[in-house]
From TrEMBL:
<feature type="transmembrane region" description="Helical">
    <location>
        <begin position="71"/>
        <end position="95"/>
    </location>
</feature>
<feature type="domain" description="CHASE">
    <location>
        <begin position="250"/>
        <end position="428"/>
    </location>
</feature>
<protein>
    <recommendedName>
        <fullName>histidine kinase</fullName>
        <ecNumber>2.7.13.3</ecNumber>
    </recommendedName>
</protein>
<keyword id="KW-0472">Membrane</keyword>
<feature type="transmembrane region" description="Helical">
    <location>
        <begin position="150"/>
        <end position="175"/>
    </location>
</feature>
<feature type="transmembrane region" description="Helical">
    <location>
        <begin position="187"/>
        <end position="204"/>
    </location>
</feature>
<feature type="transmembrane region" description="Helical">
    <location>
        <begin position="6"/>
        <end position="27"/>
    </location>
</feature>
<dbReference type="Pfam" id="PF03924">
    <property type="entry name" value="CHASE"/>
</dbReference>
<dbReference type="InterPro" id="IPR006189">
    <property type="entry name" value="CHASE_dom"/>
</dbReference>
<keyword id="KW-0597">Phosphoprotein</keyword>
<feature type="transmembrane region" description="Helical">
    <location>
        <begin position="116"/>
        <end position="138"/>
    </location>
</feature>
<keyword id="KW-1133">Transmembrane helix</keyword>
<feature type="transmembrane region" description="Helical">
    <location>
        <begin position="492"/>
        <end position="518"/>
    </location>
</feature>
<dbReference type="InterPro" id="IPR003661">
    <property type="entry name" value="HisK_dim/P_dom"/>
</dbReference>
<feature type="transmembrane region" description="Helical">
    <location>
        <begin position="39"/>
        <end position="65"/>
    </location>
</feature>
<dbReference type="InterPro" id="IPR036097">
    <property type="entry name" value="HisK_dim/P_sf"/>
</dbReference>
<keyword id="KW-0812">Transmembrane</keyword>
């Protein structure tokens, strides 16, 4: 018993693993739910033919499957998911076995087309509902979502499980051959089913490839659009900063009003800039004068301040130069920033020396900025403003509340823009509402800073990462589909291929198996008919044997009194008594003896005891002797008959001379009664078939056509049938023609005269047979 179960265990384990990995590899996109339906169908078939051994096998190899799925396919095959999958597979297997138990136990699933239809209906569409329902829970756990529709998941799993079941389970049963089908039939059905399965697989793979190509193209399009729009927004901010820098570079002096007007025009363009700031370079010697003039210009108490390492803002300590924030637009909400020395900005946020050295726009590290009572991520975009080499001047106080220019370093100040991309990112996310989601982080440091969104789920979604350099900062943009593949809206082509292909494959397999079932039905009907024929033959043989026994017994019983009568008549004749009565008794006994011989011939012909010979004899000589006998017979006195032999009739034939003679006697006797004429004409003709095989025709007609026309009303098929039943001669003619492989017929010529014909099958004697027969004849004469 162990030797029997061990191979089944390993075969079941291998088929289970092959179905799981094959389904995940073949079904696109690859997902954890793909293997449940096909594996359930395979295990159902194994359970039907092998019992509980396959269940033990899948329970033991499932941990190997879970580890392989994590290692090779990177699926989260956790305990909950695999437990639900295995329970669904086992439940479908047991339910399938219960549904088709009677079909398998009584070996009638392929017995008829009706049984086959209900068998396929139970192993396919009905049983597959179990795995299709279970994957809904698995899909929610795998995709980590609850909302949305998983109807496509249900239909896809139902289809896969049903197709594997209707193709795999019948092949297993045919391989086991419990129905005792012929090997050729099993090979034909198996080969056709495999070809059909391959065709359906290619159709589904082609459809999946087209769907995924279209899906990937849409995702790539959304990704490129997002990348392009973000780059355009950043470039727009930089362009505005450059324009403000050029404005300060081109003017000897820029007033607060001019700065406000220029900044207002920039803000109307709807960029992500929250505030624009100007920080001029102020030497230490001009600090006090600059603070006084700024207080008057800005109409508020203005002091140059700096930010300590702990984030506290205090008055700036003495140093060679400062870059305080002097102009800010808009002022509302940003008053606290006036006078803040940008040189005091923490190095990890923004290095002003780096801004000076690069001479380009430099972005700071992201920071949390309070806006509308909410902290949102923001950045500082800074650019150092330099005078041209021929105009290297610095700022010093002069009269009329203005700053005069003296020759100094090239740096005259910093243009700073406070930028928040949150509103732009929200608008961009709304534009991609039906397609993708994105998550943006600043990854310039070891600890990433989130600029927008949150970590995206990646299960059953396309996902890509874009690394974008933003003026000394590195942004990482993760883009992923909003919905997993199974929850996405499918095109009508995808639904058409899935549903149409499934129903088409089911119909194809049903037709293939129905041919085998129809063959079984025909075989069953043939067996029934054969048994009926055998019984009928046995019954007929019994009746024929009983009839023969009765006739034989009757013949024996009647022969004895006939012999006694014959002896008695002979004794009377010896005594000289030979009157009319004695002659009548003698004739009556002879007629009864002839009738008994005829009855025995009929009985022997019906029982098959008499078989016609195929001896070679001179047919023309036979006809001449027969004609002479008929003409000399007292029975046919006054009833002339003439024989007309066609030229096609050969001299020698192979047949039974005795029964041809009896046939002619019975035909001529019947023709007198049927045609109602005394003078008859017998025409003999021949029709060749192939080689030496031929048919002889004996056609009897009346020599007097007037008499024949007068009796025309009697020449009906009914009269012929009545004569065949009531006339012993006609019955004998029919039996003899059948014995000689021919038939008798009644016909009417175009002239209205009736004819009675009989046909027999003969063989034309070969030259060697004729010579041999002639030699025997001459020997007898000698």
């Amino acid at each position: 018993m162990m030797q029997l179960h061990l191979p089944r265990f390993f075969i079941s384990a291998l088929l289970y693993l092959a179905s799981c990995f094959g389904a995940i590899w073949l079904i696109n996109p690859q997902s954890l739910v793909n293997f449940v339906g096909p594996a359930a169908a395979v295990v159902s078939g194994l359970l039907i033919i092998w019992g509980l051994t396959p269940i033990v096998a899948i329970l033991l190899v499932t941990p190997i499957l879970a580890f392989s799925l994590k290692y090779f396919f990177y699926f989260d095959a956790n305990l909950a998911v695999m437990s639900i999958a295995v329970l669904a597979i086992v439940l479908q297997a047991f339910w399938t076995k219960q549904l088709v138990f009677r079909f398998i136990h009584y070996k009638k699933w392929l017995l008829s087309r009706k049984h086959l239809f209900f068998f396929l209906l139970r192993i396919g569409p009905i049983a597959s509902i179990v795995s299709a329902s279970s994957v809904l829970v698995i899909a929610m756990l795998d995709n980590q979502v609850i909302q949305g529709t998983f109807f496509y998941t249900f239909i896809n799993t139902w289809s896969a499980s049903m197709l594997v079941a209707v193709f795999f389970i019948p092949l297993l049963l045919l391989a086991k051959n419990a129905e005792q089908l012929k090997l050729t039939k099993r090979i034909f059905v198996g080969f056709t089913s495999v070809l059909g399965a391959l065709a359906i697989l290619i159709l589904f793979k082609t459809s999946q490839y087209e769907q995924q190509s279209y899906r990937q193209a849409l995702f790539k399009q959304s990704k490129v659009a997002i990348e392009r729009l973000i780059e355009a927004e950043v470039a727009g901010v930089v362009n505005q900063i450059n324009s403000l820098s050029a404005f300060f570079k081109a003017s000897d002096y820029v007033s607060l009003t001019e700065f406000t007007v220029f900044s207002e025009s920039i803000f109307k363009q709807g960029s992500s800039i929250r505030a624009l700031e100007w920080a001029p370079i102020v030497p230490f010697s001009h600090r006090q004068w600059f603070e006084q003039q700024s207080s008057v210009t800005l109409q508020q108490d203005f002091h140059i301040r700096e930010r300590l390492a702990n984030g506290k803002v205090v008055l700036a300590k003495p140093r060679s130069q400062y870059a305080p924030l002097y102009y800010i637009y808009p002022q509302y909400g940003n008053q606290a920033a006036f006078g803040l020395d940008v040189y005091s900005t923490p190095q990890q946020v923004l290095s002003m020396q780096q801004v000076v050295d690069s001479k380009q726009v430099i972005a700071s590290a992201p920071m949390s900025l309070v806006q509308d009572d909410m902290a949102k991520p923001g950045m500082l975009f800074s650019k150092a403003v330099f005078l041209p080499p021929e105009d290297n001047y610095a700022t010093k106080p002069s009269g009329q509340n203005k700053l005069s220019i003296i020759k100094a370093d090239k740096l005259i100040g910093f243009v700073v823009a406070v930028v928040q991309f949150d509103r732009f990112f929200q608008q961009l996310a709304k534009q991609q509402d039906q397609d993708v989601s994105f998550f943006i982080q600043d990854v310039s440091s070891h600890q990433p800073f989130t600029l927008f969104g949150q970590a995206l789920p990646s299960a059953n979604r396309y996902m890509e990462t874009i690394n974008m350099e933003v003026f000394s900062r590195l942004w990482q943009i993760n883009i992923a589909e909003k919905q997993p593949w199974f929850s996405q809206v499918k095109t009508w082509q995808a639904w058409a291929v899935l549903i149409g292909g499934t129903l088409g494959a089911l119909l194809f397999q049903m037709l293939v198996l129905m041919m085998a079932a129809y063959s079984s039905e025909l075989g069953q009907q043939v067996d029934i008919k054969t048994r009926a024929l055998i019984l009928a033959k046995e019954s007929s043989e019994q009746k024929s044997l009983a009839k023969s026994n009765f006739l034989q017994n009757l013949n024996k019983e009647l022969r004895l009194p006939l012999l006694a009568m014959k002896v008695f008549v002979e004794q009377l004749k010896k005594k000289g008594i030979n009157n009319k009565q004695v002659t009548g008794i003698s004739h009556a006994g002879s007629n009864i003896a002839l009738l008994l011989d005829t009855m025995m011939d009929l009985s022997d012909i019906e029982s098959g005891k008499i078989i016609a010979k195929e001896d070679c004899f001179d047919f023309h000589g036979f006809l001449q002797r027969t004609e002479a006998v008929f003409k000399a017979s007292n029975t046919y006195e006054g009833k002339p008959i003439s024989f007309l032999i066609d030229d096609s009739v050969p001299h020698y034939i192979n047949s039974d001379e005795l029964y041809i003679q009896k046939l002619l006697q019975a035909l001529i006797e019947s023709a007198h009664k049927l045609l109602g004429a005394d003078a008859l004409r017998l025409s003999i003709k021949l029709h060749k078939h192939k080689r030496a095989d031929a048919s002889l025709f004996f056609i009897i007609s009346s020599q007097n056509e007037a008499v024949s026309k007068a009796n025309e009303q009697d020449l009906t098929q009914q009269n012929y049938d009545e004569l065949s039943v009531n006339s012993t001669a006609m019955a004998m003619a029919i039996k003899y023609s059948h014995l000689l492989r021919g038939d008798t017929k009644l016909a009417t010529l175009s002239s209205g005269a009736g004819v009675l014909s009989a046909s027999i099958r003969v063989i034309i004697s070969s030259i060697e047979q004729q010579e041999a027969q002639q030699g025997l004849t001459f020997d007898i004469i000698d």
